[in-house]
Amino acid sequence: MEKLAYHMQQQSITTADYIAWAHRRLALLDESPALFKLAAFNEDANIFEIESCFEQAMRELHRTSTLLSRVERDTRNRHRRLCTV
Fold first, then answer.
1. What is the pLDDT of residues 2-56, one digit of tens each?
2. DSSP states of 3-64 as a string?
3. Of 1, 11, 71, the residue nearest 47 (C-alpha)
4. Residue 11, phi-psi category: left (phi > 0), alpha (psi -120 to 50), beta (remainder)
5. Domain count, the chain
6. Which residues contact 18 (CB under 8 A, 6 or more apart)?
7. Domain that residue 15 falls in
């Protein structure tokens, strides 16, 4: 993400940067419909379509991480209650 953020800040980002980011996220076992779509783009795709897909992937990944955090917290709380009985 740092490399992608650097390119964004420098206004030198390319479709290849977005696609490479998607491939790195998939290698980390992240999943979202938009992430899969972004990884499947060709480098000659329209940059605006790629950016839209990237933004959607970020929203989906954030929702996933928020949901996982909530599930992990609830699981820890249940475990604590069971251990204190």
1. 777 777 777 888 999 999 999 999 999 999 999 999 999 999 999 999 999 999 9
2. HHHHHHHTT---HHHHHHHHHHHHHTT---HHHHHHHH--TTS-HHHHHHHHHHHHHHHHHH
3. 11
4. left
5. 1
6. 4, 38, 41, 50, 51, 53, 54
7. 2-83
